[in-house]
Amino acid sequence: MADNNYLDKGNSDGTILGQSSSAKIGFWGITPGDQAAALTTALTTITYTTATAIATTITAAVTAGFGFINTDEAQSFLLVVQNIQARLAELETALKEAGLVAGGTATALTDTEYDRIGTGQDDGDILGQDSSALVGFWGITPCDQPGALTAAAATVNSTALASATTYDYTIATLVSNSVGFGFSDGEAYATLFLVVSNMQARIAEVETNLAEVGVIAGGTAVVSTTSGSAKYDYLDKGNGDGTILGVSSSKKLGFWGTTPVDQPAALTTALTTITCTAPGTTDYAIQSCLSTIATFKFVTMTAAETLMHVVQNAHTRLGEIEAALEEIGLIASN
Length: 334
What we know:
The protein has helices spanning 71-98, 186-213, 301-327, and strands at 5-6, 15-17, 25-27, 57-58, 115-117, 125-127, 135-137, 157-158, 170-171, 233-234, 243-245, 253-255, 275-276. By secondary structure, it is of the alpha/beta class.
């Protein structure tokens, strides 16, 4: 039978790791850092016409394919994809900095004196004795385990380009002409809108959950702990050099009663972030696409195919972030 260490003391008011947002905390042997900044402000969530039959594979764009109803819709959509990429990158940076996924800076053997929480037992350490235990980080009011995210849409598979050297990450202002490039059928187009809208909702939920427990900025700071107020257990000792939960990436940690695991692996390597022309007038209500030569299409084939590849990559990375957070118990599993 596993012999786990429970780092909380069972205080009904909750347990907080870090006495304020400036307290330095690290996980799995990563150099401690203070609370990560809030993510980039989210754009308005796009709406879409649901595909009648979900197409999980989007084929290479063709000159006779489908396009957007107008340039405002097309450029708004590109801006949303760009925003998703930026927010995923910031989320990955914040998780790496805290050591919740691989990629942070490992602590060096120096004279720096860290508070290391946990005994390093092989069975692992658990913060929170079950999903109802109240836990907070960086001075944020403790809460129980956040709920599961919205179920993921089917992962979109794009047709790979013949050569990576032909990628076009700078997408110019879209134009309406007969030689532009679009999708091969309307179902593939509608499915892409569905997937991007799903990613927006899921990123927003991840941000809410991480802010709620204090992993990123935006949560509710604790109230005064004077007589008559809530009494919290602070697991760090206020060491100015920081506090580390887990002495190395191989040590097992769990949250809210979840079976401890070692540090989740690094995410899939990010693609280059696309750039696009910001729309003069935003239009987040994207209509069903039409099969007509008068619709709006991409200027180049490589721009159209690269967008498919970027969305596929962002979808994969969001799924990996969710899996990593589920594995250590920071969110409940779907």
